[in-house]
Design a protein that fits this description.
There is one protein chain. The protein is of the alpha/beta class. Helices cover 42% and strands 14% of the residues. It has two domains: 254 residues, Spore Coat Polysaccharide Biosynthesis Protein SpsA, Chain A, CATH 3.90.550; 45 residues. The strands form two sheets. A seven-stranded mixed sheet has the order 3-2-1-4-7-6-8, with helices on both faces. Strand 2, helix 2 and strand 3 form a beta-alpha-beta unit. The longest helix is centred in the last third of the chain and has 44 residues. The radius of gyration is 23 Å and the shape is globular. Bound molecules: manganese (II) ion. The site of manganese (II) ion has 5 residues, from loops.
Length: 314
C-alpha cells in the first residue's frame, strides 16, 4: 500500500522525543513535557509532536518549548487508512500514530516516544542515551493485572515471552527501517485489526523478536489499589494508566495524584482550582451517602429486633 511520506527537516542533534495527543489531553501532555524539561535542564531536546491540536495550543506549545531552548517539530501525516480497521472516534485512534514514527522520522536514529499521562520525576539520562543496537524497541513490562486474563490470551495466541506497556517506548528507527518496511507494518495491521489493546498489542507482536526490556522504574504503572508510595517515589517515570488526576471523574486527592500535581499545578493554573472544587463536592456527597448508609443499616437492625419481639408474642 502506498502512503504519502512527508519529508520533514529534522535535525539530528539533541535528544529526540515524540508525543502524540489531542486537545483533550493537551494540558496533561504539557505537564509530561514540563516534567521532562525540569528534570533535564542541561539537555537540549528535539520534540516531535504528532497530534492534531488547535492553533492556539500550537502557539502556546511553540512558546513553551522555546523557554526551555529546545526544538519543536509539528509532524503531520496521513494515517486515515487506519480508519478502515479502527474506530476513528475512539481515544486510541490518535495513539495509533506512534506505530508509524520510525517510518516518518526518516532522519532520526533513536526516538523516545512518551505517552501524555506520565510524569518524569527524576533524571532519565540512562534511557535517553541507551544503546539498543540489534533491537527494534525498548519497553518496560506491562503489569496492569486488571487485564491479566486478556493479556495471557494474547501471549499464548501470539507466543510472546512477555507483554510490554507501550507508554514509554524507545525506537531504534535505523534498525527498524533496515528490517521492516512501512508496508510490512500496514499489512500486519490489516491482518490483526481486532486486538484488544490496539497499537500496544501491535508493538508487542510485530517487534516480538527484537524487544529490549527496560526496568520498571522507567514506566511505573500506577493502579487504584497500589498501597505503597515508596516504589512510586523511587520510580523515574510514573504512568497514570487508569487514574487520571486531571479528569473530574477521578478522585483528586488520592495520594497517587500528588506526584502528578507537583508538576501539573504550574500547567493547569486556574483550571486546577475548578477541579479541586468539583472533587471536594464529590467527596462531600460520597461522605453524606456513606453516613446515611451506616444510619440506615442501624435503623434496619433495630426494626428487625422489634419485628422479632412482636413475632415472639404472636
Ligand atoms: Mn498511557
Amino acid at each position: 500500500m502506498a502512503i504519502h511520506l512527508d519529508n520533514n527537516p529534522i535535525k539530528r542533534t539533541g535528544v529526540n522525543v515524540a508525543f502524540c495527543c489531542d486537545d483533550n489531553f493537551y494540558l496533561s501532555f504539557k505537564t509530561t513535557l514540563y516534567s521532562l524539561f525540569i528534570n533535564h535542564q542541561d539537555c537540549f531536546f528535539n520534540i516531535y509532536f504528532f497530534g492534531s491540536i488547535s492553533s492556539s495550543n500550537r502557539v502556546d506549545l511553540l512558546n513553551f518549548v522555546k523557554v526551555y531552548s529546545s526544538n519543536l517539530f509539528f509532524v503531520d501525516f496521513d494515517y486515515s487508512f487506519f480508519a478502515k480497521y479502527f474506530d476513528a472516534s475512539s481515544y486510541y485512534y490518535n495513539n495509533l500514530k506512534r506505530l508509524l514514527l520510525p517510518f516518518y522520522c526518516k532522519n532520526v536514529d533513536y526516538l523516545l516516544y512518551l505517552d501524555s499521562d506520565l510524569i518524569i520525576q527524576k533524571n532519565i539520562d540512562d534511557l535517553l542515551h541507551l544503546d539498543i543496537a540489534g533491537y527494534a524497541v525498548a519497553l518496560a513490562l506491562d503489569f496492569n493485572t486488571d487485564s491479566f486474563k486478556l493479556v495471557e490470551s494474547i501471549r499464548s495466541t501470539y507466543r510472546l515471552d512477555f507483554y510490554y506497556n507501550a507508554g514509554v517506548l524507545l525506537y531504534n528507527c535505523t534498525f527498524i527501517r533496515e528490517q521492516y518496511t512501512l508496508d510490512d507494518l500496514v499489512l500486519f495491521v490489516e491482518k490483526n485489526n481486532n486486538l484488544p489493546f490496539f497499537d500496544q498489542d501491535i508493538v508487542n507482536i510485530f517487534y516480538k523478536n527484537h524487544i529490549f526490556t527496560l526496568g520498571k522504574e522507567y514506566n511505573y504503572q500506577i493502579r487504584h489499589y497500589d498501597k505503597s508510595n515508596n516504589i512510586i517515589k523511587s520510580s523515574r517515570i510514573i504512568h497514570y494508566i487508569n487514574i487520571k488526576p486531571w479528569q473530574k471523574h477521578y478522585p483528586f486527592f488520592t495520594r497517587k495524584s500528588r506526584f502528578f500535581w507537583r508538576y501539573g499545578k504550574y500547567i493547569f493554573g486556574t483550571k486546577r482550582k475548578h477541579l479541586i472544587r468539583l472533587a471536594q463536592c464529590k467527596q462531600s456527597i460520597l461522605l453524606l451517602l456513606k453516613t446515611t448508609m451506616v444510619k440506615l443499616k442501624k435503623d434496619l437492625k433495630y426494626l428487625a429486633r422489634i419485628l422479632n419481639f412482636f413475632k415472639k408474642d404472636i
